[in-house]
Amino acid sequence: MREFVFALDYEPDSNPVADVLAAHPETTVRSLSCHVTPESLWRVDHATGPPDALAALEDAFLTADYCSDCLVTEDCGADCDSQVLDRADGTLVLYTYWARTPVCTSVPHLALEHLGEGLLFETRREGRRYRWRIVLSDAANVPGFFAALGDEVGECAGMEMIRLTDLSPRRARADADEELLPREQRDALRAAVEHGYYETPRDVDLSELAADLGVPRSTLSYRLRRAEAQLATQFVAGDDRLDSLSPTV
User: Fold this and answer.
1) Based on the domain organization, do 159 and 186 belong to the same domain?
2) Is the pTM of the predicted complex or chain greater than 0.70?
3) Residue 114: in which H helix or E strand, if any?
4) Does residue 43 contact residue 35 with C-beta atoms inside 8 Å?
5) Which domain holds residue 208?
6) 24 and 63 share a domain?
7) What is the per-residue pLDDT across 39-55, written as a single tens digit (0 to 9) for each?
8) CA of 78: how far to CAs of 37, 43, 57, 69, 131, in Å?
9) What is the pLDDT of residues 74-98, one digit of tens each?
């Protein structure tokens, strides 16, 4: 088995979801599942971000003239149904079902045609970048797929081939670490550590750090809080020793 990782970078006004994410860079969307047949596609996506960004994202999914996965950048007459499965503070889970027409296609449909059956899809969207990871067989025709994708994408998006490698547990763990936090949160956390924000006493306060990074103080505070919450949750979930600790007053 191999993994093929590539990205599409959408131009403005060519994809409604990409436009929303570009306007709200602290918001991300990752796939929880993605399945395809020659006639249809269905998937579940998990989005994180501030309330106003998630509201705009929900509107983009529910009211767009065409499915955001369709590579045709206009209404192609396809039946696309999106529903909210869960809505909570800072998170949104969406289900999408898309029945194709003869004129529309998508990354999973092209993959099915050129790479064969038994594919596994994993996606992540940040800003205008739509990153795909496909697990496929060693015999899959990757050059043919990528060429066909370029023909379908045309001028609406740039394309970048990131890697094509043998699938390995080490690579999978590295991907999991990379996907744990959105890029903006990783960058904010790294800068906070490098500037001494987490030292005792602190070498820099939040306002100074925000000024150094050229972002609003509220934006930096949000990114750090989200990153800290995610890392703390992952740590607690992965450390069984914490279950044996007695609560203290």
Assistant:
1) no
2) yes
3) helix 107-115
4) yes
5) 180-238
6) yes
7) 999 999 999 999 999 99
8) 15, 16, 20, 12, 24
9) 667 778 899 999 998 889 999 999 9
